[in-house]
Fold:
Amino acid sequence: MNINPDMDTLYSPSKWCRRFNGDGATKYFSDFIQRVSNNVRTKIPCQLNLSYGAEYHEKIDIFGFDLPKDAPIFVFVHGGYWQESSKDESCYMAQMFYQNGIKTIIIGFNLCPHVTVEGQVKEVTQGVKKSLELAEEWGAKKVVIAGHSSGAHVVACLLERLNQYTESQRKLIVGLLLVAGIYDIVPIVDTYANDLLFLTKDTARQISPMYKDIERNDIKIYVLVAEFESPAFIEQSEKYYEKLKKLNFKVELIKYKDHDHFTIMEDLVHDTYDMSKLIFSLLKN
Structure:
């Protein structure tokens, strides 16, 4: 595989962080979310590893199990360029939500190359379906679904798969948060990330939300991007926002000042953070 050095730099978020040199931001983020998530699992009543499919990693974790059954729900899809991380270190925001009366569901899924990117999207689609079924069973009225980085790409892919959910399940979704994502993954073909993805330009285009014809719906969509992000990620966020706007979606583009690809999620442990307040406004008002 031929790597384009310029493209590789553009699609390496750690290279655009101002806090660290090299890959320091990636290591800090990984250590941070692991440490906080480990602590969360010891402090919050939770149900772990509830299966939604036959594969080993097709499981969800539920936090705030002792909250009122009809409590609002935050569903999260982690990033990691479709090939790294897991649900186990992705519940770091759950304690903050718990303290504010919100349940958290973290979706687990298989990573590339065990599955293709398209296969991963299919798994998450089913994980979200399981989450919405539970929301209905519990009598919850509001669900927000968020994804970070490659997880934002996967959540964006849900827009063309909403017909896999019942009408009552779709009505539960009051917002999609696409955080620091990429929506045209064709450029990834020429980067280091493709070593384990095995994408071609054709297969990458087929699984890119930027090129999809999407039927309009009433779900509010928030495209969130950091100030100190790769120019490519910023441009993709702006273009995807414009695409959705032209299709008459209820969409908003929000840029987070003084944040990078990783702090935009790290700060979700604080209920004073602007993104936390945005989620509260969707789930609690």
